[in-house]
Design a protein that fits this description.
The chain has 16 helices and 16 strands. With 451 residues, it is of the alpha/beta class.
C-alpha cells in the first residue's frame, strides 16, 4: 500500500518553495534579467522595493506551525523541527531561490506591458482602440497605472477653456493635441514624431506639460533637456535607461544655441532598439514606447538637412502671452481636479488617432517648415553665394573655401568638407572628375561674391 503524506509538500527547501507558490504564487513574479521581484497590487504589478517578498516567505514559514497542528504527535514534532530550521536566514534565502525556478514565476522584461493598446487606470484597464473598460488582469503584466478613474460621463470644462485660451481658439490645433495626447497614452511609436512646444514665457506650455505629466503619472518620466542634446563622450546612458517602460517623456527649457542630438532623436522616435544601462549594472536592450514632448523658449540647433530628422519634428507654436492680470494662481489645482475628465478626453483622442491618424494642422506644418528653413545654413549659403544651374560647375575645393569664408564671416557653424559634400549630394549637386580635379556640377559661385 502506497504511503500518502499527511501534507502535499515535503519538509525540505524545495517543499517550502512549493508551499510559497501555492500560497502566494498568483501575486509574485521574478525578473531574472533584472534580478527583481514583482508584486501584484490589485491593479498592476510593481517592483518589490521594500522586501515584501521576503515577508511573504516568513509568512510561509509561520504557516508550517499551522500545518503541524493538523498532524499526529510524531509528525507534529518533525514538522515543528522543520519549521524552526526554516526560520534561519539561509533557509529563507534557499526557499526564495527555488521559488524563482517554479513554473510561471520567472518572466522576462520583454513580457511586461507588452500590449501597447492597454492602459491601466484606477477602476480598470482601458482598450485605447475602442475606449472600452474592463477589469484589471494579472496576465496582462501591466506595471503602471494612471492616477485617475475612467468615466466617459465626466467632462473637463476648465481644461478645454485653458486650451482655447492658450491656442487662441484654434480648434484645428486643439483637435491635433487631443489626438497627440491620445497617441501618447499608447505604447506605440509608429507615428515617429517629436512634439516640440515653442514660445516665449507666460504662454501656458509649462502648465500644459505639467497637466500631461500628472495625467500619465504612472507612465511618465521627466528628463533633463541635456539628454537629447549633443554631448562629448559615450559613457553609460543612465539617463536613457531610466526611460524604459515610460510612454511619455517630457523635458523643458534649453539654452540658446544648443544642438539637438539628431541621431539619438531618430532612434528614440523610431522603432529601433536602444542599448542602455544603469550605473554599475549590465547593459540591456529595449524598444522605446515613449513619446517625446519638449518645451522651450529657444529652438535647439538642428544641423541635419535630411528628411529623416525633419519628418519627425512637430513644432507647436504657443504664441499667446497671458498678461499678468489674467494669470490664475489656482489654475494648476483646478486643472488637476479635472484629471478624470481629461483622461476621458484623452482616451477619445486615442480612439481618433487609431481611426484617422495624427494629421498635421497647417499652423504646425508652417511653423516646422519655417524652423527647417531657418536651420538650413547650407541652403542660405547657396542662396547668397551661388547660381543654381544644371549647366554650370565649380571646383569642389573653391566651393568649400567660399562656404568656409561665408560661414566664418556670418558667425555660422562650419561643417566639415566631407559633411559639406554629402549635403550637396543630397541636393543633387554631384561631384565628377574633370582634368584630374573634382568639380561639383549644378551650380556656379557668383562672380561678385555674396548677393
Amino acid at each position: 500500500m502506497a504511503l500518502v503524506p499527511a501534507t502535499p509538500f515535503r519538509r525540505t527547501d524545495l517543499g517550502n518553495a512549493e508551499r510559497f507558490v501555492a500560497q502566494h504564487g498568483e501575486d509574485v513574479r521574478y525578473l531574472p534579467d533584472w534580478g527583481k521581484w514583482l508584486l501584484w497590487t490589485g491593479s498592476h504589478w510593481k517592483i518589490d522595493d521594500n522586501l515584501e517578498v521576503k515577508r511573504l516567505a516568513k509568512e510561509t514559514v509561520r504557516r508550517l506551525y499551522d500545518e503541524a497542528k493538523t498532524l499526529s504527535s510524531d509528525d507534529k514534532k518533525d514538522m515543528v523541527k522543520h519549521a524552526l530550521k526554516s526560520e534561519a536566514e539561509g533557509k529563507l534565502r534557499a526557499m526564495l531561490e527555488l521559488v524563482k525556478a517554479e513554473p510561471g514565476v520567472a518572466i522576462t522584461t520583454a513580457a511586461l506591458d507588452a500590449d501597447p493598446w492597454l492602459l491601466s487606470c484606477e477602476n480598470g484597464t482601458i482598450d485605447l482602440r475602442t475606449g472600452s473598460l474592463r477589469e484589471h488582469r494579472r496576465e496582462d503584466l501591466i506595471t503602471r497605472r494612471v492616477p485617475a478613474p475612467y468615466d466617459l460621463d465626466t467632462d473637463c470644462p476648465r481644461w478645454l477653456a485653458f486650451l482655447d485660451r492658450v491656442l487662441a481658439g484654434n480648434t484645428e490645433l486643439r483637435d491635433f493635441l487631443q489626438r497627440a495626447i491620445g497617441y501618447s497614452l499608447t505604447g506605440l511609436t509608429s507615428a515617429r514624431v517629436l512634439f516640440f512646444m515653442y514660445g516665449s514665457g507666460a504662454n501656458g506650455k509649462s502648465t500644459f506639460l505639467e497637466v500631461l505629466r500628472a495625467l500619465m503619472a504612472g507612465y511618465a518620466q521627466q528628463a533633463d533637456f541635456t539628454t537629447f542634446l549633443e554631448r562629448k563622450g559615450d559613457g553609460p546612458r543612465n539617463d536613457i535607461a531610466r526611460l524604459f517602460g515610460a510612454r511619455l517623456v517630457t523635458s523643458s527649457e534649453v539654452g540658446e544655441g544648443k544642438r539637438l542630438n539628431e541621431s539619438l532623436v531618430k532612434t528614440l522616435t523610431g522603432d529601433e532598439t536602444v542599448t542602455a544601462r544603469f550605473l554599475h549594472a549590465e547593459f540591456f536592450e529595449f524598444k522605446p514606447a515613449f513619446k517625446l514632448w519638449l518645451a522651450a523658449n529657444h529652438k535647439p540647433v538642428i544641423r541635419g538637412t535630411d528628411n529623416a530628422i525633419w519628418d519627425r519634428i512637430r513644432l507647436i507654436p504657443f504664441t499667446v502671452a497671458i498678461p499678468p492680470e489674467e494669470r490664475d494662481r489656482g489654475l494648476r489645482e483646478a486643472l488637476l481636479s479635472e484629471l478624470p475628465g481629461i483622461l476621458a478626453w484623452a482616451v477619445g483622442g486615442a480612439v481618433l488617432w487609431h481611426r484617422h491618424g495624427l494629421g498635421t494642422p497647417a499652423l504646425v506644418h508652417d511653423a516646422t517648415d519655417g524652423y527647417r528653413r531657418d536651420s538650413d545654413t547650407l541652403g542660405a549659403f547657396l542662396e547668397d553665394c551661388c547660381e543654381i544651374n544644371a549647366l554650370q560647375e565649380e571646383p569642389a575645393s573653391a566651393l568649400y573655401a567660399a562656404y568656409a569664408t561665408w560661414a566664418r564671416d556670418g558667425g555660422e557653424y562650419q561643417i566639415t568638407q566631407t559633411a559639406f559634400g554629402r549635403a550637396l549630394e543630397e541636393r543633387g549637386i554631384v561631384a565628377i572628375k574633370r582634368g584630374g580635379k573634382k568639380v561639383r556640377v549644378g551650380l556656379k559661385l557668383l562672380a561678385g561674391g555674396a548677393k
